[in-house]
Amino acid sequence: MMPKIMILGANTLQVPLIQQAAKSGYDTIVVSPQKDEPGFKYANYSIFVDVRDKETILKYAVQHQIVGIITDQTDIPVRTVAYVSEKMGLSGIGYENACLFTDKYLMREKCKELGIKTLQYRNVNNISDAIEFFECINSDVILKPIDNQGSKGVFKISTKLELIDKFNESIQYSNSNSILIEQFVSGREFVVEGIAYNNNFKNLICGDTHYFNIPDVFSATTRIFPSKADHQLIRRVEKLNSEIIKGFGLKQGISHSEFIMDGNDNIYLIETAARGGGVFISSDLISLSTNLNTEEFLISISTGNQKAFPSVKIENIASCYIAFYLPVGHIASLEGVKDIDRMTFTHRHNLNDLYIGKKINQNIDKTSRSFIIVSGETHEDLERHVKTIQQTLKIEVQTNSGIEGPIWN
């Protein structure tokens, strides 16, 4: 019998991890509540359970006598992975550490403990406390469910009336019924991917984040690696990231951190995670930038087979993901996907989820984006490739206002 490894999550972003586990010689037990997700096609065993249900998943893990449990590119199962591995004596990051890396309020409290500057914030579970904080700081704020992902329930608030209007909608996305209300700043944003093994940590790549210009959709239209910032600024961001990840005590795995600068050149943590970045950052963009097979590394540490800090070789290329939304309506025509597949500078994408006749609903978070992984020898080369893709992909959506195309920014 093949040793069994359990993977939490079965959507498109987990497919590379599931495929690598099979390639590495494991029977895969894939867990997700959504029966139609693509990862199940590659699973030896399929379990349809909420990935937050720690006790039920622990029972299945014991039943199957798994040798490891893992997830990537998603926050929601991180606590369950840590809980099961801890209860079964398997390799993991520890449940307490998993809670820290999946709770935006605890992240800020830990930063304060470490002496790392934070924006003004408060953890609230009722509108009265939220209003009190808003009136106290007398500036725009942002509402964030403390323990969710995909920018669900995130809103920028400029007035008391907006706060009252959006509070209940935001809190419904919080599993713990709490919201982080925080001072809002705008400025340059960075993303940093890192790697930890045996309590040692190293930054891998630092990139730039650019957002859609859509109200209350806090979602990136592109993340570009490496960052175009000057080396001194990149070093500042990476130094701060190292202080946070080491201070938070991540002993193994891939980390994904997001930062923002204000007008005074202060750098603040937006959030950090004990897993690789989504939209194939972990599976593809790290590999393109560093020649590191993240799935192989994650599987190796989860099964206790990793024996040394992996070798990392920085590649002299530029890469990114580009994303787009579609307007509300039905897809009337779709051309260019096969042409994009044939392009040597494109890698992975989720365009196969689109089809003529598909109903497109309102875009409220990151989960409804379509995206493509792109590379180039230089940043200029990368920009040309992105333009080629945007010109090649032709999608028409029948909306109430007529025919409209993709929303790229």
UniProtKB/TrEMBL annotation:
<dbReference type="InterPro" id="IPR011761">
    <property type="entry name" value="ATP-grasp"/>
</dbReference>
<keyword id="KW-0436">Ligase</keyword>
<keyword id="KW-0547">Nucleotide-binding</keyword>
<dbReference type="InterPro" id="IPR016185">
    <property type="entry name" value="PreATP-grasp_dom_sf"/>
</dbReference>
<dbReference type="Pfam" id="PF13535">
    <property type="entry name" value="ATP-grasp_4"/>
</dbReference>
<keyword id="KW-0067">ATP-binding</keyword>
<dbReference type="InterPro" id="IPR052032">
    <property type="entry name" value="ATP-dep_AA_Ligase"/>
</dbReference>
<protein>
    <submittedName>
        <fullName>Acetyl-CoA carboxylase biotin carboxylase subunit family protein</fullName>
    </submittedName>
</protein>
<feature type="domain" description="ATP-grasp">
    <location>
        <begin position="108"/>
        <end position="303"/>
    </location>
</feature>
